Amino acid sequence: MFKVPPVPASRLPALLRAMPKAELHIHIEGSLEPELIFALAQRNGVPLPYASVEELRRAYAFTNLQSFLDIYYAGASVLLHEQDFYDMARAYLARAVADHVAHAEIFFDPQTHTARGVPIETVINGLHRACEDARTELGISATLILCFLRHLSEESAFETLEQAQPLLDKIVGVGLDSSEVGHPPEKFARVFARCRELGLHLVAHAGEEGPPAYIWSALDVLKVERIDHGVQAVHDALLMQRLAQDRIALTVCPLSNQKLQVFPNLADHNLGKLLDAGLAATVNSDDPAYFGGYINENFTQVFAATGLTARNAYQLAWNSFEASFASSADKRNWEHQLKEVFERCYEHDD
Ligand SMILES: [Zn+2]
């Protein structure tokens, strides 16, 4: 790997913002800004229990995963038509381009929408069209990962997979999200086995609030290729070894962890520990509209709070490309661009 010389602390935030990166943990419903929720509510004639954008923004003062999920599902209620899903994804992708995201693997929760009577093809076609248009119009690569809601049954996950079957060419993989504690990965063993047979990539949220045991079963029972969050792995030395040896990427979301009280003080975040242990950690935004920042905010704030270095920055961006489900050719191309941005940064040295 490229040997990264030190960068003065004053220049680090600019470098973090400018470096190309992949975003591997973004829930598209969690990118819905209050302004867009209001615009879509008006367009679709959906009444909202908030009088103004400001009032809705103030309601974002949740304190844990469950109270966040309650408002998250309320926000999603304005999404009814294919164009709504398109507009939501387009808004995120434009924001991601501004943060120098070269590639995004976007999570979506079909059950949140099908439960309200929105057909799954409305959801997938709208999101997929936004990804296709963004490639040509914005120059960003973007793919979709269908997530099963883990607080629902495995039977419901199977129904969702069945509905998605004719559209599987529009997604690259499946994931597992929503309330973690009490819903261990093994609850979804059979549906993940089926998805594996279908040739889909597999990821799962594990070890956000849940114990290391959930990470073990995500790996050994579900056979996932990446762990979403995974920060609780530090409590299990054997698991840390396994994650490092097998180069299992963790999609870490610092501002989400802070907001949901996993690390109430960002200075205590263990991202540096994960990197020091040789784990393929990455930085991502999770639900940026709700957690106070898109990917660059996550980078700059966690670096400022924990004193991570330029070498860590390079490693995190490189990990994000390596851990993506993009082609090898695309990965090499982005990693080359990453190296160029770092080299240019040193050319300005006196
Ligand atoms: Zn998440």
TrEMBL record:
Active site positions, chain numbering: 208 (proton donor)
Organism annotation: Paenacidovorax monticola
Catalytic activity: adenine + H2O + H(+) = hypoxanthine + NH4(+)
PANTHER family for the chain: ADENINE DEAMINASE
CDD domains per the UniProt record, alphabetical: ADA
InterPro entries registered for this protein in UniProt: A_deaminase_dom (IPR001365), ADE (IPR028892), Ado/ade_deaminase (IPR006330), Metal_Hydrolase (IPR032466)
Record Gene3D superfamilies: Metal-dependent hydrolases
Protein name: Adenine deaminase
Domain of life: Bacteria
Cofactor: Zn(2+)
Cofactor binding: number and manner: Binds 1 zinc ion per subunit.
Pfam families in the cross-refs: A_deaminase (PF00962)
GO cellular component terms attached to this protein's record: cytosol
